[in-house]
Amino acid sequence: MSKRKDGKKEVDGEKVVLEYMQKQNRPYNAKIVSENLHGDVKLAEVTRILEELSQKGDLIEKINGKQKIYWYNQSKLTDITPEVIRELENKRQELKVTLSTTKEELMVEEKTNKILSSQLSNEELEKQLKQLSEEVSKLEEKYKKFKDQKITIDPKEKAKLLKDNEFFVKEWKKRKRICKDASELLTESSGMKISKLYETLGIETDEQNGFTLDKLIDYQPKRSLEPSRGKSKK
C-alpha cells in the first residue's frame, strides 16, 4: 500500500498499476506510468510493481537500450472488439507515418552535417578572407593609379594584374556559391527564410554592402594602358 502525495488516502499500488496498464493497453515505461497516475504511486514503487507484474506474467517486459518498456499481456485479454482492433490499426498507421517522416528529417540533417563538416572552419575562412582582402586592396590601389592616367605599363605587369584579377574573381564566386548552397540546404531543413537565417547567423551579404561582381571585374581603365610608342625616326 502507498500514500497519495496529499496523504489523504492509501491505495493498493499493484492493483492501481495493473488496472491502468490493462485499461490503456499500450507500452509504457515506469516514469510515464507514475506521471499518468498523478502521484498516486511513486516512481520507485511503480518500477518495482512493473517488474513484479512482468515476472507474474501479467505484463510483458522489453528492454530498449537502458530503458524497460511494459505492456499488458495480450493473451489475458478476452474482450478485444473490432473497435479496439481498428483503433490499434489506426495507431499503427500513424506511427508508421511518423517513423517515415522522422527518417527523412534525419537524412536531411545528416546530409547538412556532412556538407558543413567538409567546409573550412570559421577561423580558416576568416584567415583566407583577410588575405584575399589585402590582395584586393593592393590591386585596387594600383588600379586607381592607372585608371585616369595615360601611363606606360609593362605588358608583363598588365598580364599579371589581369591574371590576378581573374583568380580573385573566381575565388570570390566559388566561396559565394558554397555559402549559398549551404544556406539553401539549411533553410530547406529548418523551414527558415534565407534572410532570417542570415540575420540569425550575423551574415552580411555583398549586396547589402553595395558590392557586386560588376565592381569587382571593372578593371578596364577609361584611358589606354597600352605601352607608349616611341616617335618614328625620319
UniProtKB/TrEMBL annotation:
Residues annotated as domain Homologous-pairing protein 2 winged helix: 13-73
Residue ranges constituting the Leucine zipper with capping helix domain according to the UniProt record: 154-209
Domain of life: Eukaryota
Coiled coil: 85-149
GO molecular function, one term: recombinase activator activity
Single Gene Ontology BP annotation: meiotic joint molecule formation
Subcellular location, record wording: Nucleus
GO cellular component assignments: condensed nuclear chromosome; DNA recombinase auxiliary factor complex
InterPro entries (UniProt xref): Hop2_WH_dom (IPR010776), LZ3wCH (IPR040661), WH-like_DNA-bd_sf (IPR036388)
Keywords tagged on the record: Coiled coil, DNA recombination, Meiosis, Nucleus
PANTHER family: HOMOLOGOUS-PAIRING PROTEIN 2 HOMOLOG, TBP-1 INTERACTING PROTEIN
Family that this chain belongs to: Belongs to the HOP2 family.
Name of this chain's protein: Homologous-pairing protein 2 homolog
